[in-house]
């Protein structure tokens, strides 16, 4: 399995018991979707290795307590400490309406209510406090905030996101 075919689920942050159980900080708004998994891919030495799960349950709000079949001691747990966990993209629940996964809108055209076609989404920058579409239009990069106030409609069939950008934002890049 390749990372490109997977989504980041979370990271092993600590040991839970002397029997090798670990706690995973998961990156999701709905942790309950992942409290009954059978397996995950663990990133080890630039490879994704499948690990099978004996038992998996929620622990507090954003943590999963996982008992892997292959991890039976504290020493085993130390070997995977800090590793990232991944699941195949096919495991993501399908979103509808104006909700979307960042990876699914790459390549979508962006249509502004005032300026019309303002380019194609090249990537999503989610390292800032406000996630941004990185849109390319005629060799120029536009940064469009991802916000319910700006996104009017997501048209998956036509691969278009309709937006209403704040006054002056598009002009800042295209003038």
Q: Kindly identify the CATH topology of the largest domain.
A: Elongation Factor Tu (Ef-tu), domain 3
Derived structural class: mainly beta
What proportion strand? over 45%
How many β-strand stretches? 12
CATH class of the largest domain: Mainly Beta
By CATH, the superfamily of the largest domain comes out as RimM
Helix amount, in percent?
A: under 10%
| N-to-C CA distance | 44 Å
Q: What characteristic shape results from the CA principal axes?
A: elongated
Strand order within the widest sheet? 1-2-5-4-3-6
The unreliable regions are: none
Q: How do the helices and strands follow one another from N- to C-terminus? A: EEEEEHEEEEEEEH
Based on the structure given, which CATH architecture of the largest domain is correct? Beta Barrel
Discrete helix count:
2
Radius of gyration: 20 Å
Major β-sheet annotation: 6 strands, antiparallel, barrel
- Total discrete domains: 2
- What is the overall pLDDT average? 92
Topology:
Blueprint: E1 6-15, E2 22-26, E3 39-44, E4 47-59, E5 63-68, H1 74-80, E6 84-88, E7 109-112, E8 116-125, E9 132-137, E10 140-145, E11 151-155, E12 160-163, H2 169-174
Parallel strand pairs: 7-12
Antiparallel strand pairs: 1-2, 1-6, 2-5, 3-4, 3-6, 4-5, 7-8, 8-9, 9-10, 11-12
Question: In words, what does this structure look like?
Answer:
By secondary structure, the protein is mainly beta. The protein has helices spanning 74-80, 169-174; strands at residues 6-15, 22-26, 39-44, 47-59, 63-68, 84-88, 109-112, 116-125, 132-137, 140-145, 151-155, 160-163. It folds into two domains: 3-91, Elongation Factor Tu (Ef-tu), domain 3, CATH 2.40.30; 102-174, SH3 type barrels. The protein has two helices and twelve strands, in the order E-E-E-E-E-H-E-E-E-E-E-E-E-H. The chain has a six-stranded antiparallel barrel. Strand 8 (116-125) and strand 9 form a beta hairpin. The chain is elongated and about 60 Å long. The model has no long low-confidence stretch (mean pLDDT 92).
């Amino acid at each position: 399995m390749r990372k490109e075919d997977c989504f980041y689920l979370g990271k092993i942050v600590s040991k839970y018991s002397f029997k090798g159980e670990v706690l995973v900080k998961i990156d999701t708004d709905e942790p309950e979707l992942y409290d009954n998994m059978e397996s995950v891919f663990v990133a080890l030495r630039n490879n994704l290795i499948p690990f099978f799960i004996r038992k998996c349950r929620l622990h507090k709000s954003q943590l999963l307590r996982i008992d892997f079949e292959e991890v039976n001691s504290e020493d085993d747990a130390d070997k995977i400490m800090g590793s990232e966990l991944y699941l195949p993209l096919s495991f993501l629940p399908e979103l509808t309406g104006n909700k979307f996964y960042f990876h699914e809108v790459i390549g979508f055209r962006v249509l502004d209510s005032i300026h019309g076609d303002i380019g194609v989404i090249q990537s999503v920058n989610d390292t800032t406090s406000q996630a941004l579409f990185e849109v390319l239009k005629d060799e120029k990069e536009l940064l469009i905030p991802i916000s319910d106030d700006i996104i009017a409609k997501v048209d998956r069939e036509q691969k278009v996101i309709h937006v209403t950008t704040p006054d002056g934002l598009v002009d800042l890049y295209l003038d």
